[in-house]
Structures are given as C-alpha cells and as structure tokens.
Amino acid sequence: MLQMADSPFFDRIMSNLRASCKYYTGYPKDLGPARVVHFTSEREFVHLLHEGYPMVVAFTIRGNYTKHLDKVLEEAAVEFYPHVKFMRVECPKYPGFCITRQRKEYPFIEIFYSPEQAPNQGRVADPNITKYSVKVLPFNYDLSAYGFREFFKRHGIQSSDPK
User: Fold this and answer.
1) Which domain of life is it from (predicted)?
2) Domain edges within the chain
C-alpha cells in the first residue's frame, strides 16, 4: 500500500502550495542569505541609519518567543531587502543601548526612519559632528511580513521600488 506522504503526487501538491500561497508559513522556506543584521555597536547602528533606509530594530532577550520572532524577521528582511534594513539587538549583551529605549517588556520592535541632516543650529563645538534627526515609531501590527507591509503603507515609509 502506497502511503500518501511518499507519493510524487503529494509532493507536487505541497510544492505547488508552497510556491503559490504567499502567506503559507507552515513549511520552512529557503530564504537565501540571512538579511537580519545583528547589533554589535552603536557606531554600526548610526552608520546604518545614515545609509538612509528605514530600519526595523527588534530588541530581544532569550526565550521561545524570540525564536519565532527571528523567523518572522528573516522572512520580512528577505522580502523588503534592500529598501528596509532589519536589525536584532540581544539586550543582555548590550544593556546600555536597550535601556536608553526606556521599555520594560521584551521583545519589542521599533522602526527608525527618515534620517535627515539637521541644519547647523548656532555654534557647533566640533565640526566633525553631524546631527541627524530620526523618527522612531513603536511597531504594534501583526508580527509578519504582511504586518510590516501594512505598517509601512500606513506610515508612508518607502519599503520597495517606486512603480
């Protein structure tokens, strides 16, 4: 007796489902190279902000929910690459950076966008310092690529090539 799981017909159905169903998440996807940047320093963070792309930053601690969050971030990072950067901060490793966000519940996500060079206001003590203004929004939508897309649309954040 042929079991359904071993049949080529079943494999074709599942393959077709994975290829055609955009929001099917029940099967591991081949996402290619990792696109989520892991936080290593505030200097690197500021450098990425200066590239001018919106940046989704997940502030995390270790836990089961973080594993789910990592998968969602990877999937979304691949979908929005290169127009939106995704970064994950492991707060136990970088407590100083996380504490500045003044949040007590982990994990949480914030979107940093629209870095613009601020005009010089008055005298600048060091001519090598450039000031930037960055808008920060808490992310409170559905935790999925779809949720990020809706959030970007709602807030007018450019997340893909203009068509």
Assistant:
1) Eukaryota
2) 32-155
Token pair, residue 6, equals: 């071993």
User: Which fold does the domain 32-155 belong to in CATH?
Assistant: Glutaredoxin (3.40.30)
**Across residues 35-51, what is the average pLDDT?**
91
Q: What is the pLDDT of residue 120?
A: 45
Q: Per DSSP, what are the bridge partners of residue 136?
A: 112
Nearest CA among 91, 15, 27 for reference residue 57 = 91
* 57 and 87 Cβ atoms separated by less than 8 Å: yes
- The CA distances from residue 104 to 36, 41, 101, in Å, are 23, 21, 9
* Rounded CA separation 158/83 (Å): 7
Question: 137-150: per-residue pLDDT in tens?
Answer: 899 888 888 999 99
Q: Long-range pairs for 79-82 at CB < 8 Å and ≥24 separation? A: 79/145, 79/149, 80/145, 80/148, 80/152, 80/159, 80/160, 81/35, 82/53
Instruction: Output DSSP code: residue 33.
Output: S
pLDDT at 68 over 70: yes
Asked if residue 77 lies in contact with residue 157, where contact means CB atoms within 8 angstroms, the answer is no
Model confidence over 99-147: pLDDT tens digits? 988 888 889 999 998 645 444 444 445 656 555 678 888 998 888 889 9
